[in-house]
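Section 4.2 – Deliverable D4.2 (structural model, holo form)

The reporting period included a commitment to supply a predicted holo structure for the target in complex with nicotinamide-adenine-dinucleotide. Inputs used:
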Amino acid sequence: MKYNKIKNYVAGQFVDATSTKTIPVISPVNGQLLSEITCSTHADLDAAVAAAKAAFPAWSKTPIKERVQVFFKYKTLLEKHLQELSELCSEENGKIYSESVAEIEKCIELTEFATSLPQLVTGEVLEVSRGVECRTEKVALGVVASIVPFNFPSMVPNWTIPNAIALGNCMIMKPSEKVPLSCGRIAQLLKEAGLPDGVFNVVHGDTDIVEAICDHPDIEAVSFVGSTKVAKIVYQRATKNLKRCLALGGAKNHLMVLPDAIPAMTAQNVAASMSGCAGQRCMAASAMVAVGNVDHIIEKICEEAKKIVPGKNLGAVINKAAQQRIEQFITEAEQQGAKVLVDGRNTIVAGKEGGTYVGPTVIDFVTPNMNIAKEEVFGPVIGITRANTLDEALAIENANPYGNAASVFTQNGGAARYIIDRASAGMIGVNVGVPVPREPFSFGGWNESKFGVGDITGKSSIEFWTKLKKSTIKWNAEAGVNWMS
Ligand code: NAD
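Output (structure tokens):
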């Protein structure tokens, strides 16, 4: 085992979880055993929540201008440790180094946004009657939880950490059991940045501890990012327990390519979108709708896909089960009549034989009834469906139950606007393959890609992490003002 056993982080200390269940942490890059987690018991969660609850009064009463000073320092520490954090991210997740660097750079951008929160959370005040004023303040919720997936070991935790904590909340983080290492380093860096003990805590585990978080009476709000199946479970369970919940789920993002699209740029964008992070992004393009004759662009997409070399500029998928699942989607589509133009099955990377790789895969003549067209594949695979008109393309896009992203590739502004207005997705790209809004804009999908109100990052997250206090104030008793008194 390369690293020591992973511990929970409670009240500023690394402590052992106490259940008898352990889960190995295996690097997808080469199959090496990196470490193991011990799952947390309910008592372990209680201890973390108690620490967060104890820290809350002082932290929430610290002025926000002071609270964000921690995040100025944290940002500097992320910059200082960029290489080390990126290497750890690649090791546990399997993505290539440059993708991990981009991930940590995104953490820096997310933190930078949090440092601007004092400018964004000022309340309102108005003299509503002579001598009487109403004012609003955004105040912290209390102890909040963040449950995260495997595909971004640092970025998704940092979607929630800087904003929730800068706004005065104390947090319980539940990392993915598949990639638990990065969160330990995040905890250390937050402490080094000056975050008081107990404000940020980490509990490891899987299903049981997630359920316990949803049930815990002292947790006010739960944010979740992961598959739609689990997002539904978490949203239903947390809200049944009367908690505030925002649960982001899976995706099936459609790229609509029109005949007037710029061929080279479109092909590069499509190939990068479907293969970046080995297709394990909730913003990855996994379905392309070819509108009319775009054979010349499909040819170029195949050329681009063939330039992508597993192990060099394409990372591993998370584990053997994912590899087999992805290959099964490809085989099934082929058996049902789709044509595999570029085939990434049976990929073995020399020197990394224990790694779990799938090469870039382009499949044409996918029909809407095939599983590959309906389900989230979460691998470096794109299925192309043919459509004759924009409306046909939109009908295909609209029929999918998810709604994270949709993109259109065209030089025609009218066609692009038509798609923007009618695509059923929260994040739209025009000539952009991965339309992730950057700060201060918010990240969040629609339909089965997100349950709950608001978005998880940017300005929209402020509403989720705070509640509004409304005060009506009168000091001039002599003024004869009896309004509402
Ligand atoms: P997952 O749903 O399997 O796991 C997410 C978290 O839930 C983990 O911490 C895991 O321990 C926990 N969990 C797993 N099964 C559970 C259960 N039955 N009950 C309670 N908790 C459970 O997701 P994953 O495989 O880690 O991540 C990939 C998925 O996340 C993809 O579907 C991807 O699209 C999605 N994702 C979505 C977004 C978004 O912004 N919408 C971002 C990143 C990832």
